[in-house]
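Hi F.,

I've been meaning to write this up properly since the lab meeting, where we talked about keeping a consistent format for the predictions we share between groups. The idea is simple: the sequence comes first, exactly as it goes in, then the structure tokens exactly as they come out, then a line or two of notes. No screenshots and no reformatting. I'm using this chain as the first example so we have something concrete to point to.
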Amino acid sequence: MKLSDLLATFEDMAETTLDIVVTDEPDPAHVAAIASGLDEFNLAKTGATDRRTLAVLARDPGTGDVVGGLTGRTSLGLWFVDLLHLPPEHRGSGLGSRLMRAGEAEAVRRGCTAGVVYTINFQAPGFYVKHGWQVFGEVPSGDGVSRIFLSKVLGE
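Output, unedited:
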């Protein structure tokens, strides 16, 4: 038996001896263990340890309460926008544009050359397009709902 076949056999054994658990409330320590494992793998492949959270918050100056903002992360030269939300009373005021500009500036400062976001067709895909993002894919998920994937070259 070749060494590669033996190693494949051991990998198959490991897969069959582990329990699979599905949850919508993972323990934060478990999520951290997965992230750490991925970071170690990426470091071994690229030498980069640059994955960082990026949040841009809109705060009430009087109370300090966060009323909206965007969250995401930067990693390996990409800015991932995960969430963007403003309450209705702040939409259309230019605040969303300010959030995006601040996020993009920070992503560029961190060395990112492109950004990726997905939104839902009933949310605000036009908002992203207006800010220079380009649609590169759409995935329908039923009942007229679809996810729209966009990217942008940063710093232009």
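Notes:
The longest helix spans residues 28-46.
The mean pLDDT is 91.

If this format works for you, I'll send the rest the same way.

G.
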